[in-house]
Amino acid sequence: MLATIAATVLFSNQTMSTLPSELDQIAESAFASAQQKFPNDSLKAEDVGISIFEINRQENKWVSGVFRGDQQMYPASVVKMFFLAYAAHQLDAGAVTLSDEMQRAARDMIVDSNNDATGYIVDKICGTTPGPELSDEELKAFGEKRSVVNRWFESLHYPKINAVQRTYNEGPYGREAQWVGADYSNRNSLCADACSRLMADIALNRHWRKERNEWMKSILNRANPQDDFDKTDDQARAYIGRVIPKGTKLYSKAGWVTKQRHDSAWLVMPDGREFAITIFTQKGSNMQLVSFIAAKILQSLGYDVKEPVGDPIEAPL
Questions:
Q1: Residue 3, pLDDT above cutoff 70
Q2: Using one digit for the tens of pLDDT, what is the confidence trace for 39-48?
Q3: Which end of the chain is more exposed for a tag (fewer CB within 10 A), N or C?
Q4: HSE toward the beta carbon, residue 64, CA cutoff 13 A
Q5: Coil, strand or helix: which one is 143?
Q6: Are residues 201 and 284 part of one domain?
Q7: Is the dihedral of CA 144, 145, 147, 153 positive or negative?
Q8: In angstroms, rounded to a whole number, what is the distance separating the alpha carbons of residues 253 and 232?
Q9: What domain range includes position 207?
Q10: Would you say the C-alpha torsion 254, 257, 258, 259 has a positive or negative sign?
């Protein structure tokens, strides 16, 4: 069945040719292949979330397929693209101004996955500041401000997200520790489907002015390792970008902590077709897993790509 799908897609003349049910099968097959490839990881269904959007630019829409794409996970640094998107909305609305410092922080938040820059952007767009503990009433007001990103995405009918926390190198203190909760029950949380939708929305520029959309694209854009390895970074080399064909345009945001390893990417393929692919995994120590799943997806979509070999050299994101 998958071979038939691949052949259909390969000769599609740059039109949307894949049905949602076929994309579901491709996602599930990629997971099954990963189970066989990495038996020592004992991969279970709940360890993975996969979402594939095939974007039809001519009709301004997409079709999508998932394997547990609605499963909520701690997103690590992938959440930063939601802060970028809301920052773009606020810039459009005139609620904030794009100063040199905000530009520097937005760039460092996405390109370098810098947590200090992320803290600056979160407080800028939410109107909050870190600091000592707050009273119950003060903490409630603080939480209302921090939830503004959630409320905006809810207004756009996104799957449930929780993008309310800064990201940290060592951990939260003071009011930030209060806000995340003693049991970390208020941690950031996303699903793969919400991430692919955001990438597709950016690809089709559904919610922002053109200038602001170009701003986000310029920050999310990464060099293709197959085209110019020396100009790439770890987020391109070690995740979905590791297995994309030459000539593919890559826009992405990855994230890695001890237990999770994720990537979300919008790909403009050499044949003109476009995909938003998000792969969430609960196996942070396996540095091949995301790339392997991406390779199996792209192979099933009809592209001649190689599976990753060996572990990439990278720093945690």
A1: no
A2: 999 999 999 9
A3: N
A4: 24
A5: helix
A6: yes
A7: positive
A8: 13
A9: 2-73+191-300
A10: negative
